[in-house]
# Entry
Amino acid sequence: MEPRLYQLSTRENSSFGGNDIEMPKVSRCSVSQCSYNENESCHASAITVGDKPDESRCDTFVQSDINGGFKKTVAGVGACKASDCRFNERLECVSPNIQVGVQDGNSTCLTFTMR
# Structure
C-alpha cells in the first residue's frame, strides 16, 4: 500500500527549497490511546502541532471508541503552532518527518527542538 502524498503550495519561496514542499510525515506515533493510532502509525490525514510557541502537543489527539482515519493514510503535519521549534518556518514544519509520543502525560511532537 502506497502512502498518500500531500503537497503544500506556498505563495513565496521558502528557505526550505522553493514554492512546493512536501508535508512532513508522522513516521511514528506511540500514543496508543489516540483513535487515529494503529500499530504506532497515525492515520489522520494531517495533524496540527502546538498549543503555544514553546509547546509541541499534538492538537489532533482524540480518545474515542471510534477508529479514526483511513488505513492507507500516513499522517502529515498540516500546521505547527510551536514557533519556537527550530523546524518551524512560518508556522509550517520543515522537518522531513516527525515522531509523536507521550511526554508529561500529553501527546507530543518528540521532534520538537528549541531554537
